[in-house]
């Protein structure tokens, strides 16, 4: 099925309207298990090569990155499109509307997006209810679901750990893995939490409700060198299981573009370099998910070669359509080694 026609139409719309239309279509698909099975088996046809990681089985190494399905509206649709896991959220304890629109921008010449959504989401309680409803209705996919937690914009940083604890408490029963987002550039002050002391408190605040489930920390691409290493050490000492690298690239002062996080191709090299840096520091046995600018077999393979166990997609889905995940699972880029 060609995505080209759909893209022509979608790209005539405002990017967020196109996104909402896409998620709406996914929600429709996810409403029926039989429909999803047909799409997965006859259209997406991912090459299932299960990977064991964190005590879970991932049908493929290619996952959906956080931020596309912020309210967990369509997990079964992501499975139908051929993903091997999905990260849902980021979800904050209380609902919030995010930044004023417009807040999502396409940069087609660079196959990139800029966004300053600001954690618009329906809040942890509603998202938890929805996940419970999906499970009761037999609409939970047969793949791991990662749930990303964040803090509300109005919560001061010295009370951030409470927000992470609240969101994790609601969502942990419905998650296979919890992920801590301290790396969005769009919540003022959030990235200041990326230091050993604050992260120790936040990881501990999430570990308790996680009750033995894995907890990953997602880092910004700008975090490097000594500070990155001290953050990694602090997270692991506090009990974190592993890491996701990376979130989007913040705007530099004076850079002539919209405010917000840059994703897609311009992020590719830096995310890959960060994955390599993390792998070198933490050694072979810590789970690590690579994310940023992956849009073809070569970039997927390069991220795995840099040291990622699993990879995630977001921006490339906008340019190439949702079946990219299945296509990448089929191209045989995945080496059989490194099953943690
Ligand atoms: C519109 C948009 C919204 C996003 N929202 C979130 C979010 O809520 N939580 C999060 O951890 N990452 C979020 N991200 C970051 C992505 O998960 C991913 O880390 C980043 O886009 C790099 O991957 P990509 O180049 O494949 O898009 C968002 C990205 C975009 C483009």
Explain what this protein looks like in three dimensions.
With 340 residues, this protein is of the alpha/beta class. It has one domain: TIM Barrel (Alpha-Beta Barrel), CATH 3.20.20.70. 39% of the residues lie in helices and 16% in strands. It has twelve helices and 13 strands. It has helices at 4-10, 15-30, 33-44, 75-80, 124-136, 160-171, 196-210, 225-238, 268-282, 297-306, 315-320, 324-330; strands spanning 51-53, 56-58, 62-64, 85-91, 104-107, 112-115, 145-149, 177-181, 215-219, 242-245, 261-264, 288-291, 310-313. It has an eight-stranded parallel barrel, surrounded by six helices. α8 links the parallel β9 (215-219) and β10. The two termini are 35 Å apart. The mean pLDDT is 96. Bound molecules: flavin mononucleotide. The site of flavin mononucleotide has 28 residues, from β4, β6, β11 and α11.
Summary keywords:
pyrimidine biosynthesis; 340 residues; alpha/beta; three-stranded antiparallel sheet; eight-stranded parallel barrel; globular; single chain; TIM Barrel; EC 1.3.5.2; 12 helices; binds flavin mononucleotide
Round the Cα radius of gyration to an integer and report it. 18 Å
Q: Any guess at the CATH architecture?
A: Alpha-Beta Barrel
Helix content: 25-40%
CATH class: Alpha Beta
Mean pLDDT level: 96
The computed structural class is: alpha/beta
Amino-to-carboxy terminus distance: 35 Å
Give the spatial strand order of the biggest sheet.
3-4-7-8-9-10-12-13
Characterize the biggest β-sheet.
8 strands, parallel, barrel
Counting structural domains, the number is 1
Total beta strands? 13
Order of SSEs, N→C? HHHEEEHEEEHEHEHEHEEHEHEHH
CATH topology: TIM Barrel
Q: How many alpha or pi helices?
A: 12
Low-confidence stretches: none
Under CATH, the homologous superfamily reads Aldolase class I
Ligand set: flavin mononucleotide
Strand content: 15-25%
Quick one: overall form?
globular
């Amino acid at each position: 099925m060609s995505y080209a026609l759909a893209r022509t139409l979608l790209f005539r719309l405002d990017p967020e309207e196109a996104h909402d239309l896409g998620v709406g279509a996914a929600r429709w698909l996810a409403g029926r298990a039989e429909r999803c099975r047909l799409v997965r088996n006859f259209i997406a046809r991912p090459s299932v090569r299960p990977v064991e990681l964190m005590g879970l089985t991932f049908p493929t190494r290619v996952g959906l990155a956080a931020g596309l399905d912020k309210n967990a509206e369509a997990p079964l649709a992501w499975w139908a499109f051929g993903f091997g896991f999905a990260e849902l959220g980021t979800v904050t304890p209380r609902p919030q509307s995010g930044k004023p629109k417009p807040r999502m921008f396409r940069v087609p010449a660079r196959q990139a997006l800029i966004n300053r959504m600001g954690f618009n989401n329906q809040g942890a309680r509603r998202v938890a209810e929805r996940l419970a409803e999906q499970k009761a209705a037999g609409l939970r996919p047969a793949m791991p679901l990662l749930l990303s937690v964040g803090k509300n914009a109005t919560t001061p940083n010295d009370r951030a750990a409470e927000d992470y604890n609240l969101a994790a408490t609601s969502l942990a029963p419905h998650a296979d893995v919890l992920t801590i987002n301290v790396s969005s550039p769009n919540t003022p002050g959030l990235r200041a939490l990326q230091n050993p002391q604050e992260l120790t408190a936040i990881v501990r605040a999430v570990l308790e409700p996680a009750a033995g489930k894995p907890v990953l920390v997602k880092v910004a691409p700008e975090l490097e060198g000594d500070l990155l290493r001290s953050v990694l050490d602090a997270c692991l000492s506090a009990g974190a299981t592993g890491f996701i690298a990376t979130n989007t690239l913040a705007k530099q002062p004076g850079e002539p573009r919209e405010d917000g996080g840059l994703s897609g191709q311009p992020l590719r090299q830096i995310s890959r370099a960060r994955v390599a840096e993390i792998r070198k520091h933490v050694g072979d046995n810590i789970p690590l998910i690579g994310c940023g600018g992956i849009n073809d077999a070569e970039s997927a393979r390069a991220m795995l070669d840099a040291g990622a166990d699993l990879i995630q997609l977001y921006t490339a889905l906008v340019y190439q359509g949702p079946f990219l995940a299945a296509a990448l699972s089929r191209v045989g880029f995945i080496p059989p080694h490194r099953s943690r």
